[in-house]
Amino acid sequence: MTLFWVLTLILVAIACVFVAIPMLKPKANNDAALRDDLNKAFYKDRLAELAVETDEGLVEDQQELVADLKQSLLDDIPNDQNKTEERSLSTSMVLVPSLILVVALSYGLYAVFGNYQKVQHWQDISQSLPELSKKLMNPQGVELTDKEMEDLTLALRTRLHYEPQDSTGWLLLGRIGLANRDMETAIGAMKKAYAIEPQDGDIKLGYAQALMLSNDQVDQQSARTLLNKMLKADYVDLRVYSLLAFDAFERQDYPTAIEHWQSMQQMIGPNDGRYEMLSRSIASAKAKMEPAVLDEHAVSVSISLGSEVVLPNQGVVIVSVHSADGAPMPIAAARYPLGNFPFTVIMDDSNSMMQGRKLSDLQELIVRVRIDSDGNVATRDGDWFGESQVVELGSEVKVEINKQF
């Protein structure tokens, strides 16, 4: 801020100079100069006339008349010294108040309309960026208040405006977006950080987390792809398993969720305080699986992939239940996000498609599973699919996707 005030002083000084110059250097008094020139011209003309009149004998004492003419000329000369003193005094009386007024107006108007407090706050926040960033980067420390989050966002955006290649800054801004549930900011910031440093583990994890929380299925699938790539690394962050387990649980892919939670338990060991929490999560997933499997009016469908199947970058898994005669119109159907295979789903009356006819009305049935790559149910060219044998209602069904339309 010291530089700011120095610059304001320079600007105010320049303004004062422009005010003072016209007062210190007034325009020449043209009337006095014209009168002086006129008197000199009149004096010279009168001298010429006196010479002519003397030659004609009309003037007896030429020298006396010349002396009187000179005295008249001297009497008409203005007192410049007195006028200069008066003008200097007048200038001083006007100049000093004018300069004071310029300074007062400049700083007074800035105090009223210049938002000095906001500028000062902005500068203070920019100075406290390292401290606020440290708090945000340490989730186990003191949580940031809403006011601190706003201040940190302002400071980060200021820094990123001047340093757009700062991947850590974009990562922090993305985390703030996640904390505020501002997914547009979170995904946008994480994407920029990932573009700058695509090999950084924290950035990849943050980007995947932001995409995972998006309502767009394409973003969610991109997150799964990124996380699955991270699983193949020599070292896998515990949070990668956590995100994949959470996603699988939300998609009702309970076996995959259990698998990831068990992997986390192996990494942390039974002495870790989180081990018991993971055990409860595994028990919860198993509890959601068991009732449906035991329900005689539902079908448990385990879905796996054949070795030749190549998954599309995006798409959905469509599971449909048909009557035993293989009728094309499904009795029940459901769609699931394209994720990790194998996984298990439960089909029951809540998935029924035909009014007046429920899944529980069937005694025998066929289950078909298709990977739909374009979201159009009517389009099947190139889609992979699989079909079960005829099974009884309440049975466990295994379907392998290994055929292509």
From TrEMBL:
Pfam families membership: Ig_CycH, TPR_CcmH_CycH
Keyword set, alphabetical order: Cytochrome c-type biogenesis, Membrane, Repeat, TPR repeat, Transmembrane, Transmembrane helix
Residue spans crossing the bilayer: 6-24, 93-113
Alphabetical list of InterPro entries matching this protein: C-type_cytochrome_biogenesis, Cyt_c_biogenesis_CcmI, Ig_CycH, TPR-like_helical_dom_sf, TPR_CcmH_CycH, TPR_rpt
Span of domain Cytochrome c-type biogenesis protein H Ig-like: 299-401
Domain Cytochrome c-type biogenesis protein H TPR: residue ranges: 118-275
Taxonomic superkingdom: Bacteria
Subcellular location(s) of the protein: Cell envelope
Keyword Protein biosynthesis on entry: no
Keyword presence, Cytoplasm: no
TPR repeat residues: 167-200
Name of protein: C-type cytochrome biogenesis protein CcmI
